[in-house]
Amino acid sequence: MLPAKLTSRLALNALRRIHHGVSYPCLYSSSNSFLQTEGGITREVSLRSVPSVLGRVFYSQSAVCPSLRLHQTQQYGRRSFSLSAATIVNSAPAPVQPYLRLMRLDKPIGTWLLYIPCTWSIALAADPGCLPHLGMLTLFGTGALLMRGAGCTINDMWDKDIDKKVSRTATRPIASGEISQMQALVFLGGQLSLSLGVLLCLNYYSIALGAASLSLVISYPLMKRITYWPQVVLGLTFNWGALLGWSAVKGFCDWSICLPLYFSGVMWTLIYDTIYAHQDKEDDVKVGVKSTALRFQEQTKLWLSGFTVAMMSGLVVAGINAEQTLPYYAVLSTVAIHLTHQIYTLDINKPEDCWKKFVSNRNVGLLLFLGIVAGNLWKERRESLLQNEEADR
């Protein structure tokens, strides 16, 4: 495939031969048009009016650019910009970029899925009628970014040889040779040191609880070699924040709330990561890696439905024990509908559909967080109404 600059130059020359006057094609894949000046009049010409071969030259740039990037469209002298995680990585100095990609900074969905269970727990621990502790949300967001990066680094160090054999992972920094094992180890030490700094900002109970999760972080990459259920270990790891968030706010864990919430998070991980694993099932068979996608195969939707029922049951129990109110249960109904639709429409044999469904789980988690916040704010109103009724009596 031609480099983007050469492709744009060829397309520009071809357009000038086809159209009279001076044409200024937009050299970014997000644009579907170019500006043509003819007789002193500037007009926008759609690429769909250009012969198909030339159109493919322009659209070919989309295939080599990530979906998350800086979009720049020049139209009648105006430019619009959209910032993204991949843009930040691509704009960083070249020597730094492999390390940012190693911690998956260009793909923030994993950080979101690690962070969201923390927000549930922090929101549930808030006093009735109060918003979640903003400082804790910020602190846990920083910790999620660092620990997700550390987890990805550990995973890539373990899976270096496997990643080389899988097309989707062959370009990862360690597998491709951009970063050596020793450089990755030093980088891992830096991430864990910063993560420890975040953990030390919490109370002693939470420090001990957080440190206990490190064994899961280290062992998870090995599970895919041992069992068809590595997603269970991933769920235990990714949802540790459902325990840690509450303890960070309260100084202890209310297990009647934290355990059902943690269980629901694990079930949620089994749902979205099984969907994710269906993208790589053919390569997994070739390299001998196991997953729930290979375990469930054509019965995947049945299993995911069962996990959904278990997840919602755990959330109901956690809500009852936390004395949650109507908005919380209304949002639970919406989450259940979303997951049901997600599973019903899932095509496990289309990687692009699996990715779309997988990414949509960020919205599921954020929706549940908003439901917890709304339910907690409703508590104050409910208590005020009860007090007024008692006063009337």
Automatic annotation (TrEMBL):
PROSITE patterns: UBIA. It is a multi-pass membrane protein. Coiled coil: none annotated. It comes from the Eukaryota. One of its GO terms (molecular function) is 4-hydroxybenzoate polyprenyltransferase activity. One of its GO terms (cellular component) is mitochondrial inner membrane. Keywords: Isoprene biosynthesis, Membrane, Mitochondrion, Mitochondrion inner membrane, Transferase, Transmembrane, Transmembrane helix, Ubiquinone biosynthesis. Its EC number is 2.5.1.39. InterPro entries: HB_polyprenyltransferase-like, Prenyltransferase, UbiA_prenyltransferase, UbiA_prenylTrfase_CS, UbiA_sf. It is found in: Membrane; Mitochondrion inner membrane. Its cofactor is Mg(2+). Gene3D superfamilies: UbiA prenyltransferase. Catalyzes the prenylation of para-hydroxybenzoate (PHB) with an all-trans polyprenyl group. Mediates the second step in the final reaction sequence of coenzyme Q (CoQ) biosynthesis, which is the condensation of the polyisoprenoid side chain with PHB, generating the first membrane-bound Q intermediate. This is 4-hydroxybenzoate polyprenyltransferase, mitochondrial. It comes from Perca fluviatilis (European perch). The gene is COQ2.
